[in-house]
Amino acid sequence: MDTFQTPPISRLASLDPPGMKRGKLPPVMKRSAYRYEERPALRKAPIYDTLPRSLIPSLQPKLRPPVMHYGWPVDFERLMKIAEELDLLVVVDLDDLVGDPDGPPEGIHRITVPTVDELDTIDGLLEAAGEELPPSVRQRMRLRRVINEMLGVVVSLYTNYDLATPVSDEFVEWLQDLLGEKERPRWYLDEELCYWRPRQKSSPSQLPTTTTMDTFQTPSVSRLASLDPPGMKRGKLPPVMKRSAYRLEERPALRKAPIYDTLPRSLIPSLQPKLRPPVMHYGWPANFKRLLEVAEELDLLVVVDLDDLVGDPDGPPEDIKRISVPTVDKYLTVDGLLEAAGEELPPSVRQRMRICRAINARLGVLVSLYTNYDLATPVSDEFVEWLQDFLGETERPRWYLDEELCYWRPRQKSS
Fold it and tell me: 3-state class of 30 per DSSP?
């Protein structure tokens, strides 16, 4: 490329310069097994201007560092204005109901409402901005969830695992000006892969077959009510779920991907020898209002202190004070609620029940019980029925498409 060359890692302005002595990482970033109860502390993990070299994966032979995103916190309002100026707004048709909910059913009508899709719009804006970059580099620039930023979402340019082919510092400066950012990007901690992991020498082992629970037994795959029964003929998957290379322009179509009551067997990974299917989540759309009410009844609300500024922004700086505001963290609260609900499950099974992002869910957020990659050790149908009643859900869970891993991938023959 004539304009934006990929720089060598030693010259990246986003990294600590060689020879810089930073000292040990703070305790919250320590190299130890991840424990669920550490999540509140991780929300206060440091945000780095330059990446400590101890977090560069290639320099860590035994452990894989947490995933760090280099980018900016998302200002949706500003990005929407830029996209509108460039005629890049993505409008999708969403269904809505109109009428008196207390009146007769025939008085309620379903209508289609054109709505700006903020996530797809920003994806398209970043795609247009990076048109001169190689596709594999450009497609990394997207919205990502992080654990240590106020709103939890950043425009990620690349991660510490992409340092062999990052975007150049020249491109970063140009993009900073295009997006109206006043400061350089910084390094934020990924919401999911926020902990150190051992390097895998082989495929991860499954749970021991001797694992037992008195109340909720792990069922065999053939008996799961969440799967198409053996012998059921469903036909080919719809075009949007086709086995082909993922292209960014397909994301709007993926938002209309089917939501399944039972999982088609063609989406079971163990039945696909050549390709890895998209990740599918079995769960319910997150109704935070109801979930927080359940958590409050059980005294499980998680309250964190968030910084805020008070005073006259047009007055002298000494009149502006920083205060801590106790705030209910809805994500940590729901995580804790699911942790309590699954106290009789093995830890590795219980920790899969979490809030996640789905591309074809109405509001994009799910309570996920397990995925199609967890079918060797899912929770039982009996537990699902109990949890459905516990959470006040009126319908059984369904299968939704993961927001990130929403496409077919080749199987890796080697590490």
Answer: coil
Distances 241 to 246, 255, 261, 264 between C-alpha atoms, Å: 10, 11, 16, 11
Cα–Cα distance between 345 and 109 in angstroms, integer?
Answer: 43
- 256 vs 361: CA distance, rounded Å: 9
Looking at residue 55, what DSSP letter applies?
Answer: G
Which residue in 305, 291, 405 sits closest to 355, CA to CA? 291
The 3-state DSSP class for residue 29 equals: helix
Take residue 336 and report the two structure tokens written for it. 């804790």
Is pTM beyond 0.85? Reply is no
- Give the count of beta carbons closer than 10 Å to the beta carbon of residue 156: 25
The Cα 380–Cα 209 span in angstroms is 15
Q: Please report which helix (H) or strand (E) contains residue 341, including its range.
A: helix 330-341
Q: Which two tokens stand for residue 15?
A: 């990294």
SS (H, E, C) 112-156: EEEEECHHHHHHHHHHHHCCCCCHHHHCCCEEEEECCCCCCEEEE
Using alpha carbons, select from 285, 289, 286, 287 the residue that is nearest to residue 399. Answer: 285
**Nearest-CA neighbor of 113 among 336, 382, 388, 362?**
362
Contact indicator for 366, 284 with CB cutoff of 8 Å: yes
**Inter-residue long-range contacts of 257-262, CB under 8 Å, 24+ positions, other chains counted:** 257/359, 257/360, 257/401, 257/406, 258/360, 259/360, 259/361, 259/398, 259/399, 259/400, 260/398, 260/399, 261/396, 261/398, 261/399, 262/225, 262/226, 262/227, 262/228, 262/229, 262/399
pLDDT, one tens digit for every residue, the chain (415 residues) = 334 444 455 567 888 887 787 777 877 777 665 555 667 788 888 999 999 988 988 877 777 888 999 999 999 889 999 999 999 988 766 555 455 555 555 665 556 667 777 877 888 899 899 988 887 788 789 888 898 887 788 999 999 988 888 888 999 999 999 999 999 999 999 887 888 876 644 333 332 222 223 344 444 454 678 887 777 777 777 777 776 655 556 677 888 889 999 999 889 888 777 778 889 999 999 998 899 999 999 998 887 665 555 555 555 666 656 666 677 878 888 888 998 998 888 877 887 898 888 988 877 889 999 999 888 888 888 999 999 999 999 999 999 999 878 888 776 554 3
> Hey, what long-range contacts does 91-94 have (CB within 8 A, 24 or more apart)?
91/115, 91/116, 91/117, 92/117, 92/120, 92/252, 92/255
Find where tokens 């000292």 sit. 23
